[in-house]
Amino acid sequence: MSSRLPATLIGGYLGAGKTTLVNALLRGADGRRLAVLVNDFGELPIDADLIEAREGNLLSISGGCICCSFGSDLIAAIMELRAADRPIDHLLIETSGVALPATIAQSLQLIPDIDVNGIVVLADAECVRDRAADRYMGDTVLAQLAAADIIVLNKVDLISPEQTSATTAWLKQVAPRARLLPARRANLPPELILTRQDEQTKGRFFASGHDTAQLATVGFEIDGNGDPEALAQALADASLHLLRVKGIVRDRHGALVAVHVMGRRASVEPAPRAVQGPGRLVCIGLAHEIDAKAVVDAIAARPPFAARIV
User: Fold this and answer.
1) CA triplet 216, 16, 144: central angle to 5 degrees?
2) How many CB atoms lie within 10 A of CB 123?
3) How many helices (H) and strands (E) does the chain have?
4) 149 within 8 A of 118, measured Cβ to Cβ
5) CB 114 within 8 A of CB 78
6) Alpha carbons 206 and 188: distance in angstroms, whole number
7) Of 93, 104, 126, 240, which residue is most buried, by most CB within 10 angstroms?
8) Is the peptide bond before 304 cis (omega within 30 degrees of 0)?
9) Which tens digit of pLDDT belongs to each residue from 180-229?
10) CB–CB of 256/220 below 8 Å?
């Protein structure tokens, strides 16, 4: 199994819903062992009923998860976490409201066994445009949005459909490469963000308890031995409107590799040793945008790969 630890950055300006999302991910961990790194516990009030124990700058969370405060030295905190040899499936890094996720992602590239899975930026549907126009905070807000692989337009239930459409159109202009996902109370399926190895094997994505009505999932069987990096980049193309892709394909030598796409970010790594069988991919997108035939055509444009919808 690959030793690289997938890491997701969660950013967004003050009040956008980062705390709500992190707590939801912890509640929906479903056996995944998550590590959450935050600047300070005071900035991320983990729901009290999730906390099992507190020791200094570390919280033990129910379900085998942990939450650590890293202060000003994120790299040192991650190195300490890895040195402790804790069993971790996924690392979540909740940035401060004024931090720039792109800068943090660049710093993480200094750690060889960390794989930046994606940058998720939350935007407050009620006020993101006003904040972006503010003379003091505007540059920070726009830089946060520009760094995103997925922008969660949160609190859409607090504005009208017309306002939602206008804000969505504006976001597509200021962050044209990001995938946009409307949400209420940051209620996202954890599987949209988190990766677990058995899900690659079984092709599972969603538990039924989440509000996924606006999302659609399409599965594909993949034939052929080819260039998985080129395939991953093709699936990250904005024209396909895919939020998330996970799966297994065979490289030119016939070895199974894991393919991940989150928004515009794509990566390939060795598949877990236990994974067997044919190549397969599962794709998530908004129900009104995802086009299974377009995905099939995009895969066919990277021969010898070929796809069938399942």
Assistant:
1) 85
2) 28
3) 9, 16
4) yes
5) yes
6) 10
7) 93
8) yes
9) 999 999 988 888 888 654 444 344 444 444 455 588 899 999 999 999 99
10) no
